[in-house]
Write a structure and sequence with these properties.
Strand order of the largest sheet: 4-5-3-2-1-6
Largest sheet: 6 strands, antiparallel
Number of helices: 2
CATH topology of the domain at 64-190: SH3 type barrels
Amino acid sequence: MNLHSLGKAVRTAIRFLERRPAAGRPRPTAPRPAPGRPSAPRSAAPAGTAAPARTAGGVSGKYPGDFTGAASAKYAPAPNGKPEPGEIVWTWVPYEEDHSQGKDRPVLLIGSRGRYLLGLMLTSRDHDQDDRGGANYVDIGTGMWDRQGRPSEAKLDRILQISPADIRREGAILDKKRFDAVATALREVHGWN
């Protein structure tokens, strides 16, 4: 058994234990997901509290807009069932031109600011030969986040602010070497620490 498998087993056990109702209390019922959409976010609301309301756009509350400015890229994945920098997760990504629309995409978590996680959208489209934006992408290769095994690139020119409640599922943990390549590019493009 490798560390990745062990970490996955621990996260699964934690999620199972978090969802068990306390003795004597009925199990809360969850709303059914819309057709074609993943089920619930990876962490449920604590017992006795309401789950966050979801907008038509797929995020809880209103999307706060893309992050601007500088922050610190931080590599801190942990097998604890919580989304953390260094992990690739699936979440709703609003379109740049209309934040009320978007789609579920893989996102590399790169840091945090206040109550939001900061992330970079991943794409399987190759931008190396693209005159318009090749410098805004970093190759990160293949991983378990893409079922078809396609190479991915992290998009540097748009930094997403993501509520942890809006994370749908984990895709993988990116190794530190590839994460450091993305962090170096963020320092060059955005002046991050």
